[in-house]
Amino acid sequence: MITVVGTGTGAPPQEFLAGAELVVGGRRHLDAVRLPEAAERIVLGPLAPALDTMAEYLEKERRVVVLASGDPGFFGIVRVLAERFGPAALDVRPQVSSVAAAFARAGLPWDDAVVVSAHGRDLRTAVNVCRARPKVAVLTGPGAGPAELGAALTAHTRLLVVASALGTDDERVERVTPAEAAARDWGTAVSVVLCLDESRALGAVRTVAGPAASPARWALEEGEFTHRDSMITKFEVRALALARLGPRLGDLVWDVGAGSGSVAVECARLGAAVVAVEKAPDGVERIRANAAAHGVDVRTVHGSAPDALTELDDPDAVFVGGGGRELPDIVAVCARRARRSVVVAMAALDRVPAVRAALTDAGFGCDGVLLQSSRLAPLPGDVTRLAATNPVFLLWGARNPVSHEGVAQ
Predict the structure, then answer these.
(1) pLDDT tens string 246-263
(2) What is the pLDDT of residues 80-98, one digit of tens each?
(3) CB 317 within 8 A of CB 398
(4) Which pTM value belongs to this model?
(5) Are 163 and 173 in contact (CB under 8 A)?
(6) Are 20 and 54 in contact (CB under 8 A)?
(7) What pLDDT band is residue 406 in, cutting at 50, 70 and 90?
(8) Contact (CB, 8 A) for 84 and 77
(9) Which residues fall within 8 angstroms of residue 142, CB to CB, at 6 or more apart?
(10) pLDDT (0 to 100) of residue 188
(11) How far is 409 from 404, CA to CA, in rounded Å?
(12) Are 338 and 373 in contact (CB under 8 A)?
């Protein structure tokens, strides 16, 4: 057996080390304990050599102990060990994880928190989860710490709780704004960062732990949004647009020419971080009202595309609504920036060839449909007729994942 001991927020119980012939762990874990005199010690760096040495000890039935942080089965070394040696070879003794300790220090329940690791991973996923969800724990790493996270979240109303050196004499738990976090050098002792929307930090009583479940409905009725003079993407169009956008937790979606923000709100309900770009001031207010009514966080940008897109982070997917002569240019800019897909809705037949060319010129495979639906409508005498809606062209481009540098699938 390999005994995997979590250090939690302090040193591991010494009794687990009794009789160990090989002890493996990070330098700080090894320095915190008294090792048996005859035990070989391996400071973890590259995993492969350590795993090979552990295999040699196991073949000779010699006792191996691995020291790890907190709960080793939670974004920890248990996964690697189980893949190499099998779960039956492991005796895991967890302690309190850094995430549980950080929420305890903050005085908050965390059954409804989303936990995302930025350790050795692209920070953008963690950033987008923090933009979309009210309670997130981010496991940090080099180049993905409080400063980098804060710099990416300055446009959002969030509180960052930075927990460093948990369980030691140097423990610090500090509450800062994203701007304050971005302006500091936090060193290497940060354990975890909590990103909180304080207005929603407590949340509702939960039965199932983890992030909120996906909504039971999407492509909502137009009447579930505030809009002006029926200027809203109809639910039939929205249903197909959402299918082609594929919004999910960790994604960033732009809704350009957002109008009422119905597409933006639906993408946010499905877990994506969303930026809605709208040039009309009253449209911006409607988007904010609709987002609040549906309990989601949509960042609004008041301005005209494509200029208003310049300072935004690259999106995974883009929805472009509206029309006008500038539509092909807007689509061209969106297509150059999008990592995965662009969906365009338009009423004017004349715009279709130029928009299609903008997508294909950017390396997208392009497809589309003309959506023309008729809805049931009542007539006097308790009978029903079919009422036609205005036809809409929907074009979409999907990027080949190998054709765009940096795309994460």
Answers:
(1) 999 999 999 999 999 999
(2) 999 999 999 999 999 899 9
(3) no
(4) 0.88
(5) yes
(6) no
(7) very low
(8) no
(9) 188
(10) 86
(11) 11
(12) no
